[in-house]
Amino acid sequence: MVSICPASPTISQPLCRPAGRPAQLTRTTNQQVITQNRQASCGGVYAQTVTQLNQLAGGTVLSCDEYAFASTVQGGAGNQSMIVPLIENNSQGGILSGFYTQNNIGDGTNFNVALTNIPQANQLNLAVVNGVNVCYGGN
């Protein structure tokens, strides 16, 4: 089981990771599928909005996060996507990659995802920009 909390407090908040998404996922190592999944869930208006917001911020501080993960069979179109802090998205990616390696999660292997020890944020900053959900942290 992989848990992304508390390394990623913003993207682990229940409002940013809605219930009802699959808890058991199946890994894919096919890079073409992963790229297609990421494009289907974080391309288009999401990519445009990330670029727009990062230009306004004066640097790359946000990115698009998707669940189910792009590196799973369940990833891609129709999943939950949200613009989140880049540092948390990178951290989550590192945790997931380490989880795959440490637990020998290879192509076609099922694994479970759990949100545990979710840190409390004093204020969760949510917005909608260009029709896209943006979750940019709390204090």
In short:
By secondary structure, the protein is α+β, with helices and mostly antiparallel strands. The chain has 4 helices and 6 strands.
Written description of the protein model:
- The chain is built from four helices and six strands.
- It has 139 residues and is an alpha+beta fold.
- The strands form three sheets. A two-stranded antiparallel ribbon has the order 1-4. Strands 2-3 form a two-stranded antiparallel sheet.
- The longest helix has 17 residues, at 86-102.
- The chain is globular.
- The mean pLDDT is 82.
Descriptors for this entry?
4 helices, 6 strands, 139 residues, single chain, two-stranded antiparallel ribbon, alpha+beta
Total helical segments:
4
Distance separating the two termini: 28 Å
Task: Estimate the helix proportion, in percent.
Answer: 25-40%
Largest sheet: 2 strands, antiparallel
Q: Helices, strands, pairings?
A:
Blueprint: H1 9-12, E1 24-26, H2 31-42, H3 45-57, E2 62-67, E3 80-85, H4 86-102, E4 110-112, E5 126-129, E6 132-135
Antiparallel strand pairs: 1-4, 2-3, 5-6
